[in-house]
Amino acid sequence: MNLAVDQDPPFMPPITIYTKSWCPYCHAAKDLLSGKNARFEEISVDGDMAAQRKMAALAHGRWTVPQIFIGDTHVGGCDDLYALERAGKLDGLLSP
Ligand SMILES: N[C@@H](CCC(=O)N[C@@H](CS)C(=O)NCC(=O)O)C(=O)O
Questions:
Q1: Residue of the CA atom closest to atom 15 of ligand 1
Q2: What is the pLDDT of residues 10-69, one digit of tens each?
Q3: Model pTM?
Q4: Which domains does the chain have, with CATH numbers?
């Protein structure tokens, strides 16, 4: 009997990351999430001031990319994401 077939896949909250293609912080943030097999929606604000303004409104005024949201939580930028990882708190946010 294969119990795994009857189980729901592990819940992971939706993840959204606002990026610019040339931004090294964006690549580093995506690398960390991908390394954890986290699926995320990427919204490029490359050359799109209106989209970046919308991002900033959601991100409590923060204008830099990346801006990362995990479920209802605004994580912040790349440094914030890596700080969560160093503090051992990122996995908990990804599998609440
Ligand atoms: N400490 C920030 C640095 C982010 C940052 O400096 N991003 C640059 C692009 S690599 C940026 O958004 N600059 C302003 C802009 O492109 O409008 C983080 O970890 O996310």
A1: 64
A2: 789 999 999 999 999 999 999 999 999 999 999 999 999 999 999 999 999 999 999 999
A3: 0.91
A4: 15-46+64-94 (3.40.30.10)
